[in-house]
Write a structure and sequence with these properties.
Elements lengths: L1 H11 L2 E10 L2 E5 L5 E6 L2 E2 L8 H12 L3 E9 L5 E7 L2 E2 H7 L4 E2 L9 H14 L12 H6 L5 H8 L3 E3 L5 E3 L13 E3 L2 H6 L3 E2 L7
Length: 211
């Protein structure tokens, strides 16, 4: 009941504060005038995770926009982690929109339900057409799918880490450490060398396995 009542109040009362921390491309912490730290999860967008390609660049991009600056937050919800979910503005600029427009985020299909979300999808498509930001990769993995592929048990992760190369049992493509697809949900075949993978009928991922 506490979270629900706070969310209802928050929706009617935008608030401001100074950005004191940037956790990743879509999560920041602000310090309010009352000296309270509030974690903000940016509404309606999802940026690459830290372990994904462009994850660090998405973080750097939002940092360049907001870190150390006064921002205004329009809240929409409180998520299951207790974070305020909202749209952030700095100097009148919509930060959520800027991240999508620059090609560092997806419009979050599952949670973006406001009327302006259709506009945000258009910004995403424009970034994709011009191949800027994460769209430089021809087949980027949405972070919500990437997270599903990295939820194996501890024992499963230990087993897969024994080998150097991970093979996708569906596509028969294998990946090297550091590749954004290295721990995909179907990358459960493990090889100790490139030759071993090729002998098994797998082909190397062009962007992450050297010839």
């Amino acid at each position: 009941m506490l979270f629900i009542s706070f969310a209802l109040v928050a929706q009617a009362q935008p608030f401001s504060g100074k950005v004191v921390s940037v956790a990743d491309g879509d999560t920041i912490t602000i310090l309010t005038p009352a000296k309270q730290q509030v974690i903000i999860r940016l509404y309606g967008i999802d940026t690459p995770e830290g372990g994904q390609a462009f994850g660090s660049k998405a973080k750097k991009f939002i940092s360049s926009l907001v870190y150390g600056k006064q921002v205004k937050v329009t809240p929409y919800d409180i998520d299951k982690y207790g974070r305020t979910v909202g749209v952030v503005f700095v100097d009148g600029i919509n930060v959520n929109e800027q991240i999508i427009t620059a090609g560092y985020a997806w419009q979050y299909r599952k949670y973006c339900k406001e009327l302006f979300c259709s506009d945000w999808l258009g910004f995403e498509n424009s970034a994709k057409r011009t191949r800027i930001g994460l769209w430089y990769d021809k087949n980027p993995i949405p972070p919500w799918e990437w997270r599903k592929g990295n939820r194996g048990t501890v024992s499963e992760k230990k087993d897969i880490s024994k080998g150097k190369y991970h093979g996708n049992v569906k596509s028969h493509v294998f990946h090297a450490p550091g590749c954004q697809h290295y721990n995909c949900k179907n990358c459960i075949k493990v090889f100790g060398s490139i030759d071993e993978a090729i002998r098994a009928g797998y082909r190397p991922h062009r962007q992450c396995v050297g010839n």
